[in-house]
Amino acid sequence: MPRTNLPTDLLRTLTTVIDLGGYTRAAEALGRTQPAISLQIGRLEALLECKLIEQSGRSVKLTDSGEALAQFARQILQINDEAVSHFTAPAANGGLRIGLPNDYAVSYLQKVLADFVSEHPDVTLEIHCNLSRNLVEALNRDELDVVVGLSASGDNPFLVRIWEDTPVWAAAKGFVPRDDAVIPLLVHPEGCEYRNRMIAALAQNQRRWRVAFTSLGIGELQQAVNSGLGVTALTQKTLQEGMNVLSEKQGFPKLGNIRIGLFYKQARLTDAGVMVVNLLSQRLDEASDS
Questions:
Q1: Using CA atoms, how far apart are residues 135 and 98, in angstroms rounded to an integer?
Q2: Are 153 and 188 contained in the same domain?
Q3: Distance in angstroms (rounded) separating the CA atoms of residues 54 and 256
Q4: Do 208 and 77 belong to one domain?
Q5: Do both 282 and 222 map to the same domain?
Q6: What is the CATH number of the domain that holds 42?
Q7: Count of alpha carbons within 13 angstroms of residue 228, beta-carbon side
């Protein structure tokens, strides 16, 4: 039985409808009529034999199948655009607004972006560091173009890919609290996935805790660890020399994996954006393999 092929033009139409919030805007962006856009979505639904989009007035809402396909579609289009750029000379110019999380190897990813700017001086990058949920909300409002952020779930329509990493408990050398001690936690503000995992793990082991230090910045959190103020959760990429990794035998239960997501709106991605997305994807691949 022959396999079903998903035409990239239909997938691009789907993501454009999602990114721009409707058939009319998608038609304008793609240079087609609104009925043509509706027909293309209909063809995609016929190919997959499922409903992808429900329309209520002027607003569109993805079905569960539509949400699942959206992530596949963005991955397929990313590979397509990367392949095309390999054989053409994309216009690496203009401005790009990038969102990076405070709590996942910011300096590791910033180096990639700094190297990109050095190689493409006509591109102006604007980097914003914040809690992941704030970055994704900014992307939804079209205030950012590309976001790397921690993802609690995979149901965001602008999610392209997910990587996983395992955080560890980190403390200063020699810092081992007594079994009956209240654990001083060093945390990012509420809404941080690391913070949620630490609290959940300690609650499961019935360990008492208190917030001893709060900061948005990863640098301040690392300094607080080195100063002996308490314990926190870090990844191998943010763990610094001289820090001590605390184990289950010391009363610190294993932390749940974090999910690092790459988010962007396909319809708004420029040639320079495609290049940056590919670089970030490569670097996140390397980080997950190491």
A1: 9
A2: no
A3: 35
A4: no
A5: no
A6: 1.10.10.10
A7: 5
Q: Which among 85, 104, 120 is the end of a domain?
A: 85
Check: pTM over 0.90? Answer yes or no. Answer: no
Close Cβ partners of 171 (under 8 Å, ≥ 6 residues apart): 225, 228, 230, 231, 232, 243, 244, 246
- Residues 149, 101 contacting (CB under 8 angstroms): yes
Sequence-ordered alpha helix ranges (H) in the chain: 8-20, 23-30, 34-48, 64-87, 106-119, 132-140, 193-204, 218-226, 271-289
**Domain that includes residue 240, residue range:** 168-255
Closest CA to 49 of 13, 78, 1, 6: 6
Q: Closest by alpha carbon to 7, among 35, 38, 36, 48? A: 48
Q: What's the mean pLDDT in 74-101?
A: 88
Longest dimension (CA), the chain: 69
| Chain segment 180-239, per-residue pLDDT in tens | 789 999 999 888 888 989 999 999 888 899 999 999 888 899 999 999 999 999 988 888
Domain count, the chain: 3
DSSP-derived pairing of the beta strands 123-130 and 159-165: unpaired
The DSSP bridge pattern shows strands 183-187 and 209-214 to be parallel
Q: CA-CA distance, 150 to 163, in Å (whole number)?
A: 9
